[in-house]
Amino acid sequence: EDPAKLAEFEARIARGEKIEPSDWMPALYRKQLIRMIEQHAHSEIIGALPEGTWITRAPGFRRKMAQMAKVQDEVGHAQLLYSAAETLGKSREQMLTDLINGKSKYSNVFNYPALTWADSNVISWLIDAGAIVNQMANAKGSYGPYSRALERICAEEAFHLKYGHDAVVHMATGSPKQREMIQAALNRWWPPIMTFFGPSDKMSTHTETLMRWKVKMASNDECRQQFLDMYVPKIWELGLTVPDPNLKKNAETGQWEFTEPDWDEFKRVINGDGPCNAERLAVRRTAEERGAWVRQALLNPKAKYVRPLA
Ligand code: FAQ
Question: Is residue 204's pLDDT more than 80?
Answer without folding.
Answer: yes
